[in-house]
Amino acid sequence: MAGCLSSTTSPFLLSSHFYRTRREKPTSISWSSSFPQLNLSINSISNPSNPPLKKQFVVRAAWTRRSRGEAAKRPNRKSWKQRTDMYMRPFLLNVFFSKRFIHAKVMHRGTSKVISVATTNAKDLRNALPSLTDDNACRVVGKLIAERSKEADVFAMSYEPNKNERIEGSLGIVIDTIKESGIIFV
């Protein structure tokens, strides 16, 4: 056994005879004939008459796992902020301005439930307000959203502007009115 662990060549290594017989075509088509025939005996293992050639035997894998560098580069994986933002800022304000009306709602991101809604298209506001899209209408919608959110125990919300959207004008008035009514924007 100590001879197997030494740095000298072991009699258990494959001989050049194995390479020769492996390359030759089999004479029979049976399954057992596809294996190379090795002529081994107890005497040849304990005392080899012809030592095997020093050939490097390299095993090449057909499939290897992706390297750590490749596995780390996951283009479709979301960032930590993208994955946790829904739980850190669960209530989202959504404001929509059409030519005739102003619509605003507060939604819970995780469950997609609507917490509060205010629109100038409602019967009571449609008949009470002289204009449904001016600055006064924006203030009324902001106050309604703040009151209804407080009734639902929501005291903090966030607003994510769309691309190339500025918080100014009518949108700024709605958000400022909500802030003045005691809602915190995070």
UniProtKB/TrEMBL annotation:
It comes from the Eukaryota. Its main location: mitochondrion. GO terms for biological process: translation. InterPro entries: Ribosomal_L18, Ribosomal_uL18_bac/plant/anim, Ribosomal_uS11_sf. Keywords: Mitochondrion, Ribonucleoprotein, Ribosomal protein. The keyword Magnesium does not apply. It is found in: Mitochondrion. The keyword Ribosomal protein applies. GO terms for cellular component: mitochondrion; ribonucleoprotein complex; ribosome. One of its GO terms (molecular function) is 5S rRNA binding. Coiled coil: none annotated. PANTHER family: 39S RIBOSOMAL PROTEIN L18, MITOCHONDRIAL, OS02G0689700 PROTEIN. Belongs to the universal ribosomal protein uL18 family. This is 50S ribosomal protein. It comes from Actinidia chinensis var. chinensis.
